[in-house]
Amino acid sequence: MRELTYLEAVREAMSLEMRKNDDVFLMGEDIGVYGGAFGVTRGMIEEFGPERIRNTPISEAGIAGAAVGSALTGMRPIMELQFSDFITIALDQIVNQAAKLRYMYGGKGKVPMVVRTPSGSGTGAAAQHSQSLEAWVAHIPGLKVVQPSTAYDVKGLLKAAMDDDNPVIFYEHKLLYKTSSEVPEEEYSIPLGKADIKREGTDVTIVASAIMVHKALEAAAELEKEGISVEIVDPRTLVPLDTETIIQSVTKTGRLVVVHEAVKRGGFGGEIASMIAESEAFDYLDAPIKRLGGISAPIPYNPELEKAAVPQVPDIINAVKETLNK
Amino acid sequence: MEQTKSLKLVPEISDEKLKDLYKQMWLIRYFDEQVDQFFAKGMIHGTTHLAVGQEATAVGACALLSDEDKITSTHRGHGHSIAKGGRVDKMMAELFGRTTGYCKGKGGSMHIADLDKGNLGAMGIVGGGIPLAVGSALTAHMKKLEYVTVCFFGDGASNEGSFHEAVNMASIWDLPVVFFCENNQYGMSGNVKEMTNIENIAERAAAYGIPGVVIDGNNIIEVINATYEATERARRGEGPTLIEAKTYRWKGHSKSDAKKYRTREEEKDWRENRDPIKKFKEELIEAGIVTEEEAEKIKQEAKQDLDDAVQFAQDSPMPTLDDLLTDVYA
Amino acid sequence: MLKEVFMPKLSSTMEVGTLLEWFKAEGDTVDVGEPIFEIMTDKINIEVESYEEGILLKKYYEVDDEIPVNAVVAYIGDKNDVAPETPTAIEAEDETAATADAPEAEIAENAINEESLDTNEKVRATPAARRVARENNTTFNGVQGSGPKGRIHEQDILDAINNKSNKLVTPLAAKIAADQGIDIAEVHGTGSRGKVVKQDILNNQQPQTEVTEEVERIKLKGLRKAVADKMLQNAQSIPHVTLTTDVDMTRAIELRKALLPVIESQTSYRVSYTEIIMKATASTLKQHPRVNASLIGNEIIINKSINLGLAVAVEDGLIVPSVANVDKLGLADLTTVSKELGAKARHNKLTPDEMKGSTFTISNLGMYAIDGFTPIINAPETAILGVGRIVEKAVVVDGSVVVRPIMVLSLSFDHRAIDGAPAAAFLTELKECLENPWALLV
Fold first, then answer.
1. Roughly what angle, to the nearest 10 degrees, separates helices A6-20 and A151-163?
2. pLDDT band at C104 (very low <50, low <70, confident <90, very high)
3. I want to staple B179 with a disulfide (CB 3.0 to 4.6 A). Which of A3, B165, B242, C279 is the partner?
4. Subunit contact A69:B162, Cβ cutoff 8 A
5. Which of C77, C95, C113 is the last residue in one of the domains?
6. What are the tens digits of pLDDT across the range B268-321?
7. In chain B, which ranges are E strands?
8. Shortest alpha-carbon distance between residue A178 and chain B (Å)
9. CATH number at residue A254
10. Do A55 and A177 belong to one domain?
């Protein structure tokens, strides 16, 4: 099968959908001839024209609200939020409007919109362009939250997000854009709420999201040399969360390490750890649950500091060993 | 249509329609006065924002809209809902928290929506509906649909960032939307004269390259005419208009408001000299469209409709706990 | 900023401190160096002073509470700070202290496991281990945890269960054990191949204690608890051997008589036999360094200094102040030091430093009608000298029966560190030294 980068997979998923569904269109800052801040939409305005590849003013609240309004009236907008940090400006529309309209209208209307947004650190963009804020939106009933980790997943999950009749916040990790994997040419959908076991193992379960899936895989390869067998579960979507797969894995291994790039304090890892503690897997836990996440500080600029601010492979290795008393 | 001309109406409107608009104004007034009493008696809970005194803006702006046309509404939205064809019984049931209400008892006073009638819903967040209206207009634009979207908001919302972002976007894309600012002089307690440094909010239109119009919001004829021109312009693809209708809310901001920020003399002046319903009635009688007796009869019909609505609401079932988790997701 | 006030570790053996009194109420201002509360440790009472200035925001303990070392007792901060409802844990002591304490720490952890034998609730065990125990209808009795701080993991309980099921037991023994609720895993089998037989079960039965009359119950706590714990540990973990010998104290009495006025005029203290015995002991220890040793972990440490612990009876307890470098002190100085320490001990005024570092202990019961006894070694020391009364006895000297003042010395030694012959040689030389004490002055 041909290989595609994560970035190309995002573009391909949107293009395939837009070719067959006129209701789907894209709105965002600099997504026209510029091709988007990370080049995801490059070439799309040439194919679909400026009406459907709608270059917007720098007005995140306005764009988000226009997405909500157009979704409510029959379109299926995709909003490209240039950096996920800027969600602060768009949150009223996402949290107070998009997430709640259907419920507070008593089941009338739907808001089928996707907010695609690059997140994460590692690019030297410092504190205001490097955050991982997925826990904020995961907290809001009415929103769905997706964090794909591979090119294959991102294409299938974006298709599912575009097909979904609810607002979906779709996090694309900046450092994953250049990674590639085998991606089928045809359209396919990966259901939201279905975790993927990225590596099977027996001793410890690592639940890792986005870029941390890759770091966990690296750590697992190292640990294998020491005879430690690690299972890696990629939830892929935080809302809905595939609790069953995680519970099954932890029941099997008896040990859980949760790792995400977002700040550990109040991060989604706490939700996963709590979910396990409340589940039937609790009785199979043979070590305290370990959580790895970003430090409680803004992302710094200096590259060494930036790396140290989020979990790295040795941190994951140590955490796994700690749960094994090694 | 002799009478119509004497009313200085720009669009042609039948006598029957004008009588219906008169009745709608009374429905709004009765509805909100009734709600005020129910709150005072503790019969309904939560909070509410009443539009007594502002009947002409809602009714006038929606007078010529079809069910295809959209509006977005605000926390002070009962009048918009009634003017856009909403049923007072389903509205009252909603305030009573009943399953027969517009939102099955889950939205309450601040979130009444009626998508079939083109009411995209009331937003409790000040300014929250403005970008949403732009999105609705974007749909019409992209799908090449005929409808226009009238976006209601208040003087307070015009100071929200969302207003400026949304108006600018609608302007650059020539979207079919009418920004209808009901300037009732106060954003909660904030006097518009203290919160903005311009005489008229409509002047802000110039900043976004669109027409801005100031009208007397308590003169329904002016409201109808201005909205008509703005919607026609929008339908022609010439883009949005900002209308500022000066009006006044007779009641406080919400249910517990001592109104210390304004004088009783000011309130009295608006009530006695600038009552929009009284003004419309006088014009209808003067134009020979209704007699005093007919006007009274219409008013009584409105009262009867409202009494029926209250009865309907009180007779309707409460939601069950099974409804708690439904409709979070589509 | 919140600053914690924690329970200080005032000695290597201190694990808890008992709160005696609060000097500050919540909301009071506290200066650096001001006492905040008073505690009693296994050895002393001490006022804990503040390292910080600010407002005492929150107290977590009340008087009479036993507070673990390093636990947060209170928070000091400024008026804008909010102390948490429950205190945060503080890291253990620094590494050097931890190393020195290693053997004791292990003992303490085992003790925790033993304490928690009766219910699984108190045992540190993972949920998986608990599930396995539940599924097998067993307890964590006797299960050694392989995790940090003795945490029992799934494999530990599985191993224990497998051992148990492997245990050979006669059907009758099994029935009696089941009837009486005796855990067979706990019973030592005396039958062939270790099979548990009826008699083993009967031997294992706990004696029934019948309380028929009113009794006074004294809770083991504070100093009593500390003494109890320490004695139990030392008595159980050290293989004691006690040697006794008679000492003719005729010349020692003469020596004391001669020195009494001299020392009294110099120091205002009256020299006692204790000081003379201390001096003789120090002098003899110098010739027998193996008896002046500490056993720590797998090492016998031969101490260069001769620091003598002096067991002092206090109200409902026993404390041991240490007199440093006795071999280098003259009798006058030694008298002053030991009298002052004894007085401080009886008034709970000893500092932690004054109870540290002894290398050999003397326990004197000479004021009672006691001759010989078997003193318990004060670990990590490896020997202790028990001193009895001086009493006139008929002894045979040069073939004739004469009356002489005789004192019995009892030397308990740790047979892991010291063998019988060197211990006997030490005690013999000490006897000779006391019988010819003038040599001490040379």
1. 30
2. very low
3. B242
4. no
5. C95
6. 999 999 999 999 999 999 999 999 999 999 999 999 999 999 999 999 999 999
7. 70-73, 119-122, 149-154, 177-183, 186-187, 190-191, 212-216, 241-246
8. 33
9. 3.40.50.920
10. yes
Residue B17 sits at φ, ψ, to 5 deg, of: -60, -40
Which residue, among B208, B125, B206, B132, has the nearest Cα to B173 in the 3D structure? B208
CATH number at residue C115: 4.10.320.10
Cβ pair C320, C310 in contact under 8 A:
yes
Q: Mean pLDDT over all residues of chain B?
A: 95
Whether residue B165 and residue A59 make contact (CB cut-off 8 A), yes or no, is yes
Task: Give me the number of domains chain C comprises.
Answer: 3
Please indicate, yes or no, whether residues A143 and A237 belong to a single structural domain of this protein.
Answer: no
Verify whether residue A129 is a known catalytic residue.
yes
pLDDT tens digits along C1-45: 788 888 887 766 778 888 888 998 888 888 877 888 888 877 677
List the structure tokens of C161. 């269960």
- Same domain (yes/no): C9, C52: yes
What the block records as the tokens of A128 is 């205001």
Confidence class for position B100, pLDDT limits 50, 70, 90: very high
Residue C124 lies in a domain: yes
Q: What's the rounded Cα separation, in Å, for the pair C73 and C71?
A: 6
Domains of chain A: total: 2
Tokens of B204: 């802000």
Whether residue C144 is found in the same domain as residue C50: no
The domain in which residue C131 lies consists of: 102-204
Q: Do A283 and C154 touch (CB under 8 A)?
A: no
A165 and A209 belong to one structural domain: no
Nearest chain A alpha carbon to B137: A70
Q: Are A210 and A177 in the same domain? A: no
Closest CA to A54 of B209, B175, B236: B175
- For chain C, percent of residues with pLDDT exceeding 90: 35
Domain-located, residue A27: yes
Interface probe for A, chosen from B112, B126, B134 (most Cβ of A below 10 Å), is B134
